[in-house]
């Protein structure tokens, strides 16, 4: 639904559907935050031994970003989405909170890119290919999470007596942009995995050829 929609045109069933959707989204946000905390605490001992005691590398820095940035920003997301706020508060914070979600994509995809490049032996062609794709993904995510992020119509806050600071996901354009972002991230993951698989197969083939040549040479010598 766009910001110009007048909710008074809809009946109680429509209002109930909106309220139920908001409640379900809030439960999902709270559950995701609890899951992050549980997963973090469950692996804290291993993380301390394998990560915090290790020397600083690019992968360590990216791991820490992937680990602690979502934990930090999810506190603000939980406050914004789960709490009941008025329209003025959401006008100030909705766009900021939504923009802070974007780096969650950046860090995770950067880890996949570095791993794929390492498997490829830092092949320049792979670096260029994945680098360009990554820049495209960053551009898409900035467009999705930082550009023209509207909040629901003010009347919704009046009818519900306050609600979470959600972007207006009912807007068709917003829904389409979120879909494009998810598709771009999925394609980036698939491309990185494809590079890893191809170079693993190539390494195995090269190893088999080398072994075959070795045994052939041994046979000739014998």
TrEMBL record:
**One Pfam family of this chain:** DUF6533
Where are the annotated coiled coils located?
none
Show the InterPro entries listed in the entry: DUF6533
Q: Which domain of life is it from?
A: Eukaryota
The membrane-spanning stretches of this chain are 61-81, 93-114, 126-145, 178-201
> Which keywords describe this protein according to UniProt?
Membrane, Transmembrane, Transmembrane helix
DUF6533 domain: which residues? Answer: 27-71
What is the designated name of this protein?
DUF6533 domain-containing protein
